[in-house]
# Entry
Amino acid sequence: MHGSSRVAAKAAQDAFQRTLDGDVDCARLGEDLFAVTSALDANIPLRRAVGDPSRDAAPKAALVEQLFGGRISAEAVEVVKSVVSQRWAEERDLPDILEELAVSSVVAGAEKQGRADQVEDDLFRFERIVAGNTGLRDALTDRRSDVQGKDELISTLLGGKASDETVRLVRQAVRSPRGRRFDQVIERYLGIASVRREQLVAVVTSAIHLDASQRDRLVAALANYYDKAVHLNVVVDPAVLGGIRVQVGDDVVDGTILRRLDTAKRLLGG
# Structure
């Protein structure tokens, strides 16, 4: 986001957080905000009407009340009113922030239940499974397939194995990718969760599974280095042979045997 949209996003997020601080059903709020996001994506005149920076906030808020009052929760209506009352530099920034707040609401619900870590882990693992299975990826992302069939497939794959929040976010990623690939949607959701929880995400690639003790030591070392909470996403890849590769944002530490062999090969002129 650029210019006025950054200021608008901060104001919208502050209003959203005030709503979360009250007695609110986070799952319902997230569902409602996803619904409004989809409505704006599907209706260009509506999106322009509520996102037009030249219009006063009051008539835009009144339009939200007229269209969505009674159809979504009162809390969701107030959040959407706050969002449309801001000045957005780009038309698409408004539904983007609504999607972000919807994901944040689902994650906040998981936080209240003490399973936010599980949601992040499950989303990351499921995205890796989909990435490695062409048939599954096609089944979930084929625009010609019906939504009910995709929902049933997700239920079969994740039912009883993942949290309700994980299933909800996966379904949303499949139903409404908003022009992005499945992996890009999940990556965005994970980024939103990371920001909400004020922690960094470290993607660790290892030849073998890391046990709890190894994970704890690595988390402690990274948290001490970055002076911030760290969440690990571990990728097991036997091709690296040994050692680990750690990526935190743009920082990469590659201590794998494969990397060392490649380096040695280059030094020897191979």
Summary: The chain is about 65% helix and 10% strand. Residues 93-112 form the longest helix (20 residues). Residues 126 and 157 are 9 Å apart (CA to CA).
